[in-house]
Amino acid sequence: MSLQRFISEAISPWMKKDGPDSDIVLSSRIRLARNLQSFRFPLLATIEESKQLVEHVKNHLAESSYHTNRFELLCMDDMKPNVKRVLVEKHLISPHLAEESKHGAVMLSEDESISIMINEEDHLRIQCLFPGFQLSEALVLASGIDDWIEGKVDYAFDEKRGYLTSCPTNVGTGLRASVMMHLPALVMTQQINRILPAINQLGLVVRGIYGEGSEALGNLFQISNQMTLGKSEEDIVEDLRGVVMQLIQQERAARKRLLESSRLQLEDRVYRSYGILAHSRIIESKEATQKLSDVRLGIDLGLLKGVSGNILNELMILTQPGFLQQYAGTVLTADQRDERRAALIRARLKLEDESN
Q: Start and end of every Phosphagen kinase C-terminal domain (predicted)?
């Protein structure tokens, strides 16, 4: 498979679009946790009960569509480990669904902006992904899908507690709103060290690119609400929106100060990183993500011309272990992945040069 074709097929269609404030907010996500009545929750269910739940959902949802969105149901049991890894790297399923769920499955929309995980920690995890800063739009879509599903199956719901979930922190609305932010200037100026504790005190949580337990590589931070009980969906999203807007303003101010006070050093850092990416023969994942972050900052500040702003989004996914092995068509050792990663980045940047 050619690199151009691999890229076009590997990147979700929704990721190729621009959104508001996309120079700082890469994506917005709304996730709803739901369980069905008359079925034991996934943590207690047997394999047979989990299979019955998948069939129940399939019979009621898989053959229908939500407006123009048609879904394809994929069972984890039918997938090779690396295929599941690729879906995790594209944020279409969770690591829990890929590795720990009993007879898990996922329903994906054609553009992959909608993902309905089945038999994850809860019976259903409804996820909607939008490019840029579009929390409200994602909430509208997720709520519509939620209503559509609720019209076909019976949810586990309590009048006082709201939607019942496996984890107590999800009881109530069952909503997790999150944004993926690129904050290199706040990291460079070390302002991030005082900002993150302040965000946690506001009832929000900051994680790495793959959620809970993951490292904030490439200056990418996932910021989401922590509690789901006692507030409406709209209030949860509005609280997160306010904090994200402040972070956007602070990141832009930090970028402006860096340009004014250290422009030459910033240019040097950006071009050194571009040179390493364009010419290295071996590169580890952590170094690649940091250099990609530098290049993306250079693009957004107008220091680096002729390179697509989506390069960070694309290569952050394409250089992950699952994608590298998918492109190679075989299992790779860590050293082989480092070599392949460098080759893929060089080839991608060469495509960028040729297109210009």
A: 24-254
On average, the pLDDT of the chain sits at 90
Domain that holds residue 17: 2-172
Q: What confidence tens digit (pLDDT) does each residue in 327-339 have?
A: 888 999 999 999 9
Of the three residues 172, 192, 216, the one that is the final residue of a domain is 172
255 is in an annotated binding site: no
Q: Is 42 in the same domain as 150?
A: yes
- On whether 121 is known to bind a ligand per the annotation, the reply is no
Q: Is 94 annotated as a binding residue?
A: no
Partnered with residue 27 across adjacent β-strands are 131, 180
Is 233 a member of any domain?
A: no
**31 annotated among ligand-binding-site residues:** yes
Q: Tell me whether residue 28 is annotated as binding.
A: yes
Residue 210 marked ligand-binding: yes
40 is in an annotated binding site: no
The answer to whether residue 188 is domain-embedded is no
In the chain the first and final C-alpha atoms are separated, in Å, by 23
Q: Is residue 181 classed as helix, strand or coil in its secondary structure?
A: strand
Q: Is 176 annotated as a binding residue?
A: yes
Look at phi and psi of residue 217 and say left if phi exceeds 0, alpha if psi is from -120 to 50, else beta. Answer: beta
Q: How far apart are CA 2 and CA 312, in angstroms?
A: 20
Q: Is 177 annotated as a binding-site member?
A: yes
Kindly state whether residue 23 falls inside one of the protein's structural domains.
yes
pTM of the model: 0.90
* Residue 226 within a domain: no
Local confidence band at 309 (pLDDT 50, 70, 90 cut-offs)? confident
